[in-house]
Amino acid sequence: MRKSAPPARRMAWVWLLAALLAFGGGYWLGGAGESHKEPAMAGHEHEHAAAANGSGANGSSTGESDVAYWTCSMHPWIRLPEPGLCPICAMDLIPVAKGRQEDAPTSLRAVTLSPAARALAQVALAPVERRTVDVATRLLGRIEVDETSQAYITARVAGRLDRLHVNVTGGMVKAGQVMAEIYSPELVAAQAELLEARKAVARLAADAPALLRDTAARTERAALEKLRLLGFSAAETEAVLKRGAPADRMALSAPAGGVVVRKDVQEGAYVATGTRLYAIADLSRVWAVFEAYEADLPWLRMGAAVRFEATGIPGETFTGAVAFIDPVIDTMTRTFRVRLDVANPGGRLKPGMLVHAVQQTAAGNGNDAADAGQVLTIPASAALVTGARAIVYVADPDTPGSYAGREIVLGPRAGDRYVVRQGLAEGEMVVARGNFLVDSAAQLMAAPSMMLPEGAGVPGALPGVPPPFLRQLPGLDAPAEAVRVAAGGTDLETGRQAFAALGQALAALDASTLVDEPALHWKELAMLLGNDVRLGRDSRSMTELRGHARDLAARMDRLRHTFDYAALASGSGGPGGPGGPGGPGAPAPEAVQQQLGAVLAAYLRLQEALARDDAPAAQAAVQALGDVWRTVKSGAAGFAGFSDEAAAAFAAVQAEMDAGLAVMQDQATLEQVRAGFQPVSNALIQAAQTLGIVSQGELFRLHCPMAFDYQGADWLQPDPDIRNPYFGHLMPGCGDVTGQLPLAK
């Protein structure tokens, strides 16, 4: 047996491997060709300590003016303007030099790699090309009997098969041909009943009572009907009556002509009622049943002509039309059945014969293969696929090594390429190799990526958004609401039209006044909303449309949260506008404002309880909040003294407040209370901006970007000292002050 290496030698190899990995990480992030390199450090604590002291790895001091922001090496989406501790792991923050920052980013998803990093990732680009893409769909199958042309001969009565006139399978028979003869006591008795009924009718004199004549006639008709149901033809029944004696056997005839494909009985056998004796099939038309892979589904459609060949008839091509596509995928083989109706006048195609087809289909950018022609395509390796959507990284032609992530809508896959339905332009260069590593770099920067679709979270209301742009955004609310209503119905075309109307409203927006961060966020949201519109407009079922409507609702919530245009639409001016500390835009009556002050007081008690993780206090605060809110609704009933704008604003506040309280009052845990706390916070923010709240002191709006899986959430406090109600003691200081709201004194 080979001896293991001594412990000292094994430890030496471990330390050597760790040093190599650390050197490789520094090579990736800093680039091997840079003038100075950071040597690998032995421990994470040493790295943080050096950063906290303001010294780089080379011993030089990093001046405060050279620091762009402070971040955590374990949680790089944390970016703070001053040194301190990470709000997640409580480790020392490290500085990021201004030279490492991008100048004037053009996208929230922008990523820049050094030449060395690009070389390590082996980044390769490919153009977006317009092509005529032909897809070869290979199908294997067999010939089967057309089930609609099959006929069965069954025993209508129990009895003994005295004779089989057709005793082998494969024989040709004609319609009406006698196949077998059966003896049945039941048949003999039924014939005797008919003969006796006929005699009874004949014995009645013409002057017999009408009741007797009618009864005898009904008995005769019942006997005739019984024989008909047992399989006697009119001619056979007439023969029995003419003969005056029952026949001991009945002939069983073929109901249709064709080939006997099955014989299930033997001569002399006793059979029960309903026993199948023969199966006859008309082989002048047959089925060609193929197995197709799941990925071939976009290329097959009903009615399409498919040419195929049979293994047993080499050199000859047959044609059939697609008559059936199996609605269920076989979970074991990941295939589905495709059936062709095929004319077979000479009977050359025989059931069980193997067949194969290669269908050439021109790819399109729509929902099926019928939309043919030249279409935009990208290499399949360029797309990081997430369902019908995908992430691609587009190279900046003016800045080598700079890439912008973009969500696009894919069409079907055609060989080694994807059809692009929306999101790219011909001639753009996309990352076709190394895109997973580029996406990983985006994740480290907390930028939106495949794994983190919203990056570090949705920001609070953006400051500095031009009012002319904000005034356009409410124009999206009505078509978005129409989509929601249509998704709750059953008419697919109505839902498609609602999405199309939203697309027109989106295209009509003028974003030319946006600059800097608002421009980047609008570019991101416009891209996502446009993709929702395209997918919803092309939906093929109500289930699919409802899924896209849910995605759209989430985007619209993000839009309202990011740009906070509701206040401006009601006259309050929006974030940083006239509706800021100057006062509400659609004031409610003073009595309602005072009642809203009581709601705010109960809300602030709930906020403090959640920040302390105090469940009993939180439950008591929820109860108090619900009580005072019911008082407010009672006082505002009928909207007496409200202007039209104030009534509309109160209705919006009430919807959010009721939704949040419904979640919290049905609560059992702090997590459920926190889930309802978010809409309640949004309601009070809107109330302060539009209706007005009478309260003493100050009111600050804060935002936590990490709440609810990085979706972000706002809350209110009477002071700017952050006490996070969404995480409590886990991250009490996580959040930012995004503004101060007006209070009526």
TrEMBL record:
Any one GO CC term of the record: outer membrane-bounded periplasmic space
Q: Where is the DUF3347 domain?
A: 599-693
What are the BP-aspect GO terms? Answer: copper ion export; plasma membrane copper ion transport
Query: Per the record, where are the segments of Basic and acidic residues compositional bias?
Result: 35-49
Q: Molecular function (GO) terms listed?
A: transition metal ion binding; transmembrane transporter activity
Q: Which intervals hold domain CusB-like barrel-sandwich hybrid?
A: 151-281
UniProt lists compositionally biased (Low complexity) regions at 50-60
Biased composition, class Gly residues, residue ranges: 571-585
Ranges for domain Heavy metal binding come to 69-96
Q: Which key words tag this protein in UniProt?
A: Transport
Region ranges (Disordered) = 35-60, 570-589
Where would I find the CusB-like beta-barrel domain in this sequence?
285-358
**Family label:** Belongs to the membrane fusion protein (MFP) (TC 8.A.1) family.
**Name by which UniProt lists this protein:** Putative RND family efflux transporter MFP subunit
Q: Which organism is it from?
A: Megalodesulfovibrio gigas (strain ATCC 19364 / DSM 1382 / NCIMB 9332 / VKM B-1759)
